[in-house]
Amino acid sequence: MKIIGAIIAGGHSHRMGGREKAFLELNGKSVVTHVIEHLEPQVDQLVINANGDLRRFARFDLKIVPDVLTRLTTPLAGLHATLTFARGAKADVLVTVPSDTPFLPPDLVVGLMEKIPSGGAVIASSGGQEHYIVGAWKMELLDDLERAIAKDNLFRVKDWAARVSAQKVEWPVEPHDPFFNVNTPEDLRIAEQIVSAA
After folding, report:
1. Taking the CB of residue 88, how many other CB atoms lie within 10 A of it?
2. What average pLDDT values come out for the chain (198 residues) when binned by 10 residues?
3. Which of 9, 43, 56, 90 is the right S-S partner for 99, CB 3.0 to 4.6 Å?
4. Total domains, the chain
5. Which CATH number characterizes residue 191's domain?
6. Which residues contact 191 (CB under 8 A, 6 or more apart)?
């Protein structure tokens, strides 16, 4: 089974004052470097979904996949673009994560794959909260996703997950939430404390 991992880095980082969250420094490395180091060993190929000047990601030596549906300004556009890429690469499953989650669990892909239904999807959950961008998606979903966007004006990953009856896999939040995301300057300070305590 071929599994492609995709880091969704298409956001605007408004809560960081316009600074791109992926490139914030955490423990001497960019946040997205932490994401890469956690996810890359778990998949057959890792790509980054990003828009704008793609050269800013050149240092990571990964395939960059820009949005295809540029009128869609939510992470669903990134999911669509990477699912399209994954099907073209003859993958069986796409695993997506956001670019601002530096503490991904080492059993993420295994845990998701244990629960993914045939032709369906599964998302991660922790502390009673669903993480809709942290998920595994079968290639069979792409055609319906395109219909949902074009005909039903679907634009949120949350709504897409509900539409395809995505299963949930729960992870423990001790010693810290593995899906903690760095959205604000305060989040970055908390992330630094998590690293220090590790």
Report:
1. 9
2. 95 56 93 98 98 93 95 94 98 97 98 96 97 98 95 94 97 96 93 92
3. 9
4. 1
5. 3.90.550.10
6. 26, 31, 102, 103, 180, 182
